[in-house]
Prior knowledge:
The protein is 49% helix and 12% strand. With 312 residues, the chain is an alpha+beta fold.
Amino acid sequence: EAVRPHLKKCFASLADVDFDTSRGPKRVTVSAMRALEKDAVAFPLERQTLVSGRPVEHWLADLEKNMQLAVRSKIYECLKPLNQTGRKDRKWINQFGLQFLLTAGAIFWTATIQDAIGPKSKNPKRELYELRKSQYKLLQLLTQMIAAPELAAPENAAQRTKLVALITIEVHARDVLDHLYHEKVTRADDFLWQMQLRFYWEPCPTGPENPEGGECVVRQTDWQQGYCNEFLGCTERLVITPLTDRCYITLTTALSLKLGGNPQGPAGTGKTETVKDLSKALGIYIIIFNCSDSLEAESLGSMFWGLAQTGA
């Protein structure tokens, strides 16, 4: 119980956990995690973290691992119905949390475009045209859902935030499709497609740590990285502009070369928010601190101390 108030400092959006005490004081486990917006994800029995009689740092490390496994499992669960129904299903949108909808939707969107302009496609231009029509229909559905009068009520604020974030990302997906269509892109190795942040579900050996038999991989230009599965809850997303895309390319290229990125510009133009939004897209925990005059050597030392302990 003493750790609960400090959980939000250790994770991106995990603010609280539910403890299962039904098996006695010696078998207390973490049965669910809750986001800042009160979204909850339950852990299956085999992935519940044992708390009783263990040092805090040990069960917190296990909790982090189980959190990532649960997020990957939810993304896979969210991805499965898409092959049958596509993304135009209200039940699918209402059933899953925002992070899982966005990631599974991005995997599906990438796969459909890859098929449309890949080597097996007979008419790439026609297939891109059909994908554009489907994207417009999805946006119409989301617009109808967010226009429902009940979403104006304060108790439905989380659902409204979810739909706003979905529309924000899907509008960018529509813009990318329009651009690919008008520029007559017909090959998967065209730079206009390679420059996009693309999500793939890659098969990998099935085992106790990976019963789904796959994992999400993110690619952009020559850079590739596994999705980090940090639990994000229901948070707002940034509107993606062409400048945002260029920042993403610069930062992901820096990641691939083990270098740092340095967005420059006047105050209040969205430099920090752009980096934060990229971390949300990749499921990475991000720590933000201000390098002002008030930053002391002791504060900086505590940051390096924490980074060293995590193995960063």
